[in-house]
Structure formats: structure tokens, C-alpha cells
Amino acid sequence: MEGYGPASRRRRGVLRRKEMPLWQELPLLLIVAFCLAVLIRTFLVQAFYIPSGSMQSTLEIQDRVLVNKVVYDMRDPLRGEIVVFRGTDDWAPEVTEPVSNAFLAKLGRTVGDLVGVSRPGERDFIKRVIGLPGDKVACCDEQGRITVNGVGIDEAYIAEGFNSDLNQPPIAGQCTSRRFNELTVPAGQMFVMGDHRSVSQDARCQGPVPIENIIGRAFVVVWPSDRFTSLDVPDVWKRFEEEHPTAAGVRAAPQPKEAPVVAADIFPLLLTVVLSARSGMSFVTRRRRLRA
């Protein structure tokens, strides 16, 4: 009879072998989830904690944004975009709070850094791109606006009271004044500024930053939940780009990266582990099932 033959017994054996105790499956799935989080953080998207008020009111202290880490592998940055980057040696750290050296604190920072939820390093900054290679950036015109290539920019995203003092003369090494002399952005670099001009320490006083130092583009505020919003390029910069297109190839072609190849090799392995954990079957068992 069909229900009592050898084939039926083999099928029942396969079903029994598919079962896996929760205490065995859960740790394996947690490990896989952790590995996936590390890979995503390393190659695709990273959460970034806002440590200071230099981008108010666009970004508030303790906001968390998601940063696209691959977009600039496919194109150059655009004026008006908000980017996370590594500052040069000339940039003073924004994160100056003392940190605990206790073992658990170090472990927590290490795990948090791996999955992308820790605080930024002292050389990580978030600013808005104002000028790209060849642009002439200065402040101010008769209306107190920054100018790029002689064109005044109406920056509606700068809240009232967040701009620098127009009457204070420039001071070398400080960004307390709104005024600064015209600067031509060097090849391969970008001129960045914070939206809270009265407190932001940026390219006005610390110099342009190599475009190759960009970690990624901030594209959405994800926390707190009541501040969830996308970080689109302001319309004023879109219009400026249409009228004054960025020169193609603002930086040298990036060197080939081997890391994504490694990631591509790991993903199929992780997928195999997940499927094996869910099914509880070895490859040999699958072949037996097919023969049955």
C-alpha cells in the first residue's frame, strides 16, 4: 500500500530529520543575523549618530541617520547633499566626550561599531557639500548669502539665529564669522559647511576635504521616530546644478576594491547556512529525498 511502503518510510524519516530544537536553531540564526548586519554596515548602509549641533536645524543632536556607502562608487557627490566623511589632520574633533575604558564599555563600542550603531569616531563629520573642484566659494554678497561661482545661494534650510555674525571680521582658524575670503576648491576636494553656521567648524576655517574621504551620503533621519524624514537635496541646489552643472570626473577614478568581492563570496555561504538551519537537512539528505 502507498502509505506503508519503503518510499513512505523514507519520507517520514526526512520529515523527522527536518526538525531542529529551538535552542540549537536560535543561536545559529543570531550569528547569521549578526554577520549580515556587519556586511550591510561595511558595504551598503550605516547608521550614524549626530554628536553635535553643527547641522541644526536640519539635524538635531542625538538624531540617527542612515548613510548610503555605495552611491559615490557610481557617481560623484552633488552640491547640497549631506555627507559623512573623515576629516583631515587639520580638522579639530567634534566628539570630545571622555569614554570609559572598562572592558564591558569597550566590548559594547566594538559590537556597536560592527553593526553600525555606535557613536562616530573623533574624525568622522557630517556636513553639507557647498563647493566642488573648481568652484569659487565666498561669503558674503549684499544679502549676506554665500556665493558659489559668483551666484548667491538662498539657503532656506538655515533657521533664523543659526547663521554666523555678519559683522564679525574673519578670524584665522575660527568659524565664528559668516564672512570668509573667496576660495577656489582644489582638484579632488570639496568645500563643506554645517547648517548651523554660528557653531559649525567646517571648511571655512579648517579647509576643504578630499572627496575620497567621503564615507557616504546621509539620506534619511530614522531616529527619533517623530523626526523621520528624507534628506533630499534642497531645491535651490537643484536649480543651481541645472544652471551650473558640475564638471564630470571631479575626482580620480577609484581604485578597484576587493572587499565587495569577498562580501559576494560570503553571502551565498550565509544563505546556505540559513537554509540548512531552517530545513535541518544535510546535502546528502536532500539527495536521498530526490531519489525517493
Task: Name a few traits of the molecule.
2 domains; Umud Fragment, subunit A; 292 residues; 12 strands; elongated; disordered C terminus; 4-stranded antiparallel sheet; alpha+beta; 8 helices
Task: Sum this structure up briefly.
By secondary structure, the protein is α+β, with helices and mostly antiparallel strands. Helices cover 33% and strands 19% of the residues. It is built from 8 helices and 12 strands.
Query: Terminal Cα separation, in Å?
Result: 16 Å
Please name the CATH topology of the largest domain. Answer: Umud Fragment, subunit A
Please describe the biggest sheet, giving its number of strands, its sense, and whether it closes into a barrel.
8 strands, antiparallel
State the name of the first-level CATH class of the largest domain: Mainly Beta
Overall residue-averaged pLDDT value: 75
Number of domains: 2
Provide the helix percentage. Answer: 25-40%
C-alpha Rg (nearest Å): 26 Å
What this model shows, in words?
The structure is a single chain. With 292 residues, the protein is of the alpha+beta class. It folds into 2 domains: 2-37 and 259-291, no CATH class; 45-243, Umud Fragment, subunit A, CATH 2.10.109. Helices cover 33% and strands 19% of the residues. Strands 1, 2, 3, 4, 9, 10, 11 and 12 form an 8-stranded antiparallel beta sheet that branches. A 4-stranded antiparallel beta sheet has the order 7-6-5-8, with no helix packed on it. The two termini are 16 Å apart.
